[in-house]
Amino acid sequence: MTPAQQSHATPKGTGRFEQRVEALAQLAVGIGANVQPGQIVTLAVEPGQEPISRAVAEAAYRRGAQFVDVGYFDPHVKRSRLLHAPRETLSFVPPWIGERMLAIGEAGAARISFQGPVEPHLLDGIDAELLGIDMLPRTRESIIVTGKQQTNWCIVPFPTPGWAALVHPELEPEAAYERLWLQIERILRLDEPDPTAAWEARLAQLNAVSARMNELALDHLRYEGPGTDLTVGLLPGSTWISGAMQSIHGVRFTANLPTEETFTAPDPMRVDGVVTATKPLLVPGAAPIEGLRVRFEGGRAVQIDAETGAETLRAMCAKDEGASRLGEVALVDRESRVGQSGSVFYSILLDENAACHLALGNAYPFSVAGGPDRARANQSSIHVDFMVGSEQVAVTGVRADGSEVPLLRDGAFVI
Fold first, then answer.
1. 74: phi then psi, degrees, rounded to nearest 5
2. Would you list the DSSP string of 21-57?
3. How far is residue 240's CA from residue 214's CA, in Å, rounded to a whole number?
4. pLDDT digit string (tens) for 220-249?
5. Fold of 3-187
6. Do you find a cis peptide bond into 94, omega within 30 degrees of 0?
7. What is the pTM of this model?
8. E strand or H helix at 293
């Protein structure tokens, strides 16, 4: 069996696999997206993720969904485009793709998508710069819909053999796959007697941290560690929030499962210094960016270097005026089950919840209080998270009067 065939193979079993998928699906439509009776549900899927998409569709209909719409994106087709299409056409996106997303927003649908590379080596050898030009399956319109809070949505991981081999290359395929499943189950709290109650308790903790951060009324953050000496300014209206959100239709949901962060939108004009990523970055649909190092001046990323993949991020940061500025700053402590796993998952969803991170590109408008400050939040067609936290990176908050508040030391909150 070739690696590609292995990645697409549907695992065999006597019901254990089905039980795992069912539990994950229930989490996704429940405390995750919180699918409502009569709601349209859209699923963003890649080939190889059919078991979870079908289980989520089943669970959504059981909750009373009006219609479940499954959209498949095939990375093999993307590879063909990158290999053969004229370079000048790679940024083209047919208008109906964006129009569909805007219509989903207008319908107030629930959106569920799945992360975890099915064929992690599919794009090996592709020009890294081209990977930063062709952004699909990400679209500008999805950022707009998310920012307007028009939908209740959730992203969840789904283990596949190909992903398992990437995370655990030291193990035989079957052992690697089992190991990844066990890790995902613990990270998603599916190993708890009542996963929903466990998530409600963790979200309450994160909400409490967010409330404390807002009480501090910080002017900026300072990051200090190996290869990192960075200052990130905050807006007066920057508001710290957690993954527990609410749509404009009043539907409460958890946008990411797992979620271990408290985050806000920084001042895109006040970021200075150097930061070194503490984990590899795998942008969906691209190749890994290893050893990332970014230098900021006056808020702009003026130098982007990496051991591999720097051209991808440079191309993405050239998309528009805001692409090279920060749109998110997030704090994650060592209580994160993702971080406790000790693994690099090559998935933004998981790795960003393992450690503190920053995001180049668009800010979430709802993380800034309404008024003039919200208009100052960064705007862009991209949003790319990269991890900057570890037990060796100290994070300090500084008030406008210069007084300092230690926030994270040795990976733990000290507020």
1. -100, 110
2. HHHHHHHIIIIIT-PPTT-EEEEEE-TT-HHHHHHHH
3. 6
4. 999 999 999 999 999 999 999 998 999 999
5. Thermophilic metalloprotease-like (3.40.1830)
6. no
7. 0.91
8. strand 293-297
